Amino acid sequence: MIFSMTGYAAQEQAVENATLLLELRAVNSRYLDLHFKLDDNLRGLEPLIRELIGARLSRGKIECKLNLMQRSATHQASQLDEVLMQQLAAMQATAQQHFPKSRALSVADILRWPGVLLSERISESTLADDVKKIVSTGLQALNDSRAREGGKLKALILERLSQIECLVETVKPLLPALTRDYQAKLEAKLHESLKSLDAERVAQELVLFAQRIDVDEELTRLTAHISEVKRILNSDAPAGKRLDFLMQELNREANTLGSKSVSVQTAQVSMELKVLIEQMREQIQNIE
Q1: What is the distance between the alpha carbons of residues 258 and 268, in angstroms, rounded to a whole number?
Q2: Which helix (H) or strand (E) holds 244?
Q3: C-alpha span between 142 and 139 (Å, rounded)
Q4: Looking at per-residue confidence, does 14 or 195 come out higher?
Q5: Does residue 74 carry a pLDDT above 50?
Q6: Is it the case that residue 87 has pLDDT exceeding 80?
């Protein structure tokens, strides 16, 4: 299956006393490039998330945004950490011995102190399981999005390949006609200049001309490359880099065909081939 490197997924999952919110964005990149925007309570789980993503994706620039939204427990009275407040009082008393004119902590200062207001905390093991679940679900949704986009890219490439095959078939019958036209022109030129025909010289010139315009190898390689592109498009392995290489090879054969061109028809075919190959190459840059 062909996967695009472009995709998006958003997931929301209720956990104990909180809600996890996940966003995954993917764009094209030569390698797997991971960027994280994690809630402070989830930073310790970055290695787990990185491992989950790396197991499912091989290329692309991935942005992972994960937040933990605490839900207020209105039915429970707020609780204070008395041990922490005793520590604050002791630290304040010690500090005021050295700085007697310093301002004492206000109630607002104490309540804003990290950890003074107790909230129902989620156990780390439970949170890790919940994060693993939502990231796995999000990656599946992201891959579904990338697969749909990949299907569109595959259809576009196959359409271009079909056009290339048609162009290759139009070139093959042109070569005998070009040789006959050249022979007629050569005979007329020799007859005009020498007032006679040298059959041996005509034969030599025809051999040289046929060798110069012979593009049978190029057409054969074009056909072989087209078959390989189709095979890769129907395989399950990551295809982007292999397809990109084949686009270079197709372009090489199209250039050779153009350099050997001795007629408007073959030159035009070469140009059309290069246009189609470039169109495929642009789309392949976005394939994993």
Answers
A1: 8
A2: helix 240-259
A3: 5
A4: 14
A5: no
A6: yes
Residue 31 CA to residue 150 CA, distance in Å, equals 18
Supply 252's token pair. 């090489």
Give the type of residue at 262.
V
Mean pLDDT of the region 104-121: 73
- Contact (CB, 8 A) for 32 and 62: yes
φ, ψ (nearest 5 deg) of residue 67:
-120, 150
How close are the terminal C-alpha atoms of the chain, in Å?
10
Whether 157 contacts 165, CB under 8 Å: no
Q: Residue 48 above 60 pLDDT?
A: yes
Q: Which two tokens stand for residue 274?
A: 């290069």
| Residue with token string 């399981």 | 129
* pTM of the complete model: 0.65
Percent share of the chain, pLDDT over 90: 38
DSSP string, 178-218: HHHHHHHHHHHHHHHHHSS--HHHHHHHHHHHHHHH--HHH
Looking from the CA of 129 toward its CB, the CA atoms found within 13 Å total: 7
Asked if 249 contacts 221 with a C-beta cutoff of 8 angstroms, the reply is yes
Q: What is the CATH code for 7-73+123-146? A: 3.30.230.10
What is the DSSP pairing of strand 32-38 with strand 60-70?
parallel
Q: Where are the chain's structural domains?
A: 7-73+123-146, 79-118, 147-284
